[in-house]
Amino acid sequence: MTVFHTALRTAALPLLAVLGACSSSTSQPAEPPRTATATYTTSPAAPAADAALPAGLQATLTANLLKLGHKATVTSISATEIPNLYWVTFEQMPPLYVTGDGRHVIQGEVMRLGAAQPVDISEPLVARSARQAFQAIPASDTVDFAPAGQPKATVYVFTDADCGYCRKLHSEIAQINARGIEVRYLAWPRSPQTMPVMNAIWCSPDRKAAMTQAKQGMPVQAPACKTPVDQQQQLGLRLGVRGTPAIFTEQGVQIGGYLSPDNLAKALGL
Questions:
Q1: 52: pLDDT confidence band, cut at 50, 70 and 90?
Q2: Least C-beta-crowded within 10 Å: which of 67, 89, 112, 266?
Q3: Phi, psi of 93 (to 5 degrees)
Q4: Mind listing the pLDDT tens digit for each residue in 118-158?
């Protein structure tokens, strides 16, 4: 039984325990300006190609999900390259492919064949949403580990305090920085148990030290404060994150899972 199927049956979507990774590669352009206000949205204005959506698709899909006991909030609908197949994003659950009548859904990857490697057709759709969401996140909401001088590339990494591969990636942060790569951490607690730790990191006066402390298995304590941890977790879900670490370029393309410093630099075209 799939995660989505189970979630619909239980009318809940606690996908935090699910692990997974997908990879791609991209070059990294110069960084766009970061705005001062966090919106954490994956609902940019639809381009012209998305304008001609089937009438009633959102209403029918929402009603069919409600019949299964799940009240789903649609945040965006985009046309795909396949006729009558649409990419739909939601609040608090991963995106899905949906047929134009709102009656059939596909969970997982849909691949285009014909080249040397199969291509995930959702990649440009996810990247567009991710790119705009990342640009809207203020610098004060990320925990940044930057190289000396001007970074050659920047990645956004959804992370958790206690996941093994997150800790391995962080243990290599100096090597990553030495290759000219800046890491901007976003919170993605995989379970309710790590939510307090992630909140404590973001409430710490020295977030970098607190992040390193947590990744070394040491307790982190800080006065309670308002944090973006929950918003970042929900953003990850809307972008299809199912496990940590999840590494994205500034252009919104997910290039890992865990990657060694050399492989990360290679994936970024450095």
A1: confident
A2: 67
A3: -160, 155
A4: 989 988 888 988 999 999 999 999 999 999 999 999 999 99
**What are the b/e assignments for 58-73, b being 16+ CB within 10 Å?**
bebbbebbeeeebebe
The pLDDT assigned to 20 comes to: 31
Distance CA 224, CA 227 (A): 9
Q: Which two tokens stand for residue 221?
A: 């304590």
pTM over 0.85: no
Pairwise CA distance, residues 269 & 248, whole Å: 14
Structure token pair of residue 109:
């990857």
Q: How far apart are CA 211 and CA 207, in angstroms?
A: 6
| Residue at 254: amino acid letter | Q
Model pLDDT, residue 55: 87
C-alpha Rg value of the chain to the nearest Å? 19
**Catalytic residues, which ones?**
160, 163, 166, 190
Angstrom CA distances, 16 to 24, 52, 182, stand at 23, 35, 26
Q: What is the pLDDT of residue 21?
A: 34
Q: How far is CA 110 from CA 83, 100, 139, 253, in A?
A: 13, 16, 34, 16
Q: Which of 163, 210, 216 is nearest to 190 (CA)?
A: 163
